């Protein structure tokens, strides 16, 4: 569907659910996700959730992130909760642990933002990230996101409260950085 030098986005298939379930059940991965743990049980429920998250309903669209050469599944990303009248959407991204720290997150983010702003003509893309996830915040800032606000003390983990940082990027900011008229 879409590709960069090392990554390819493709539509999800049913067999991807096994790996997604492993990631969603891994506390080390899920500590960074604003959705929290997702407990999947019955197969029919899994398929329904999978279909809802990754089907292009006009409000949500999702992709499996694969390695361009090997085809290995590396993660997933989505644009969800789209408000078509106001041309805004939320962004979500998750990479499996073996792919952390190699620039794949930045590359996947760039590909998803290009899709959001040039293909879907979004005016605004927003995301939430926990304040302790400085590595992700750095990646988002590098891509042009700015802090739009904070939801104070939204997460209680390891005996402490943590803020959720709300970040956004406008189409005109994206186009200015990427030289698109």
What layout of secondary structure does this protein have?
Blueprint: E1 2-3, E2 7-10, H1 16-24, H2 27-30, H3 43-54, E3 61-67, E4 73-83, E5 88-95, H4 104-119, E6 124-130, H5 134-142, E7 146-157, E8 160-170, H6 171-178
Parallel strand pairs: 5-6
Antiparallel strand pairs: 1-2, 2-3, 3-4, 4-5, 6-8, 7-8
Features:
181 residues; single chain; Aminopeptidase; eight-stranded mixed beta sheet; alpha+beta
Description:
The protein is an alpha+beta fold and 181 residues long. It has one domain: Gcn5-related N-acetyltransferase (GNAT) (Aminopeptidase, 3-Layer(aba) Sandwich), CATH 3.40.630.30. The protein has 6 helices and 8 strands; from the N terminus they run ββαααβββαβαββα. The chain has helices at residues 16-24, 27-30, 43-54, 104-119, 134-142, 171-178, and strands at 2-3, 7-10, 61-67, 73-83, 88-95, 124-130, 146-157, 160-170. Strands 1-2-3-4-5-6-8-7 form an 8-stranded mixed beta sheet, with helices on both faces. β4 (73-83) and β5 form a beta hairpin. The longest helix has 16 residues, at 104-119. It is globular. It starts with a strand and ends with a helix.
User: The CATH topology is what?
Assistant: Aminopeptidase
Strand order of the largest sheet: 1-2-3-4-5-6-8-7
Q: Radius of gyration over alpha carbons?
A: 16 Å
Looking at the overall shape, the CATH architecture is 3-Layer(aba) Sandwich
Mean pLDDT: 83
Largest sheet entry: 8 strands, mixed
Low-pLDDT windows of residues: none
Backbone structural class: alpha+beta
Helix content: 25-40%
Strand % is 25-35%
Gap between N and C termini: 24 Å
SSE order in H/E notation?
A: EEHHHEEEHEHEEH
Can you tell me the CATH superfamily? Gcn5-related N-acetyltransferase (GNAT)
Q: How many structural domains does the protein architecture include?
A: 1
General form: globular
How many helices? The count is: 6
CATH class: Alpha Beta
Count of extended strands: 8
